[in-house]
TrEMBL record:
Keyword match Transmembrane helix: no
InterPro entries: ATP_synth_f6_mt (IPR008387), ATP_synth_f6_sf_mt (IPR036204)
Protein name: ATP synthase-coupling factor 6, mitochondrial
Keywords: CF(0), Hydrogen ion transport, Ion transport, Membrane, Mitochondrion, Mitochondrion inner membrane, Transport
Annotated function: Mitochondrial membrane ATP synthase (F(1)F(0) ATP synthase or Complex V) produces ATP from ADP in the presence of a proton gradient across the membrane which is generated by electron transport complexes of the respiratory chain.
Amino acid sequence: MLSQSILTGVRVLRTEARRNIAIVAPALNKASDPIQQLFLEKVREYKQKSAGGKLVDSNPEIERELKNELERVAKQYGSDGKTDMLKFPDFKFPDVKIDPISQGTN
């Protein structure tokens, strides 16, 4: 009984070790594939460009289109002009007082 549970434990450990090594091994190695290396460089470059929170590689025309679309959406959904349409709305659900139901005693 003890030997069987030890064997089961060893099998589980072997499986877990194989899974963990399979997950960690690619992260430990540098990109050996030139395509993968190029992809990583582009992702890092994009991260640096997008640090300010603005559109990446935008021009005045794209900024103008964004402004027009935001104004159109604001009109469509009835914004008063003061509401930030890029912010997720805050929902408030007040607690409603419920009158208890009194049961007649018979």
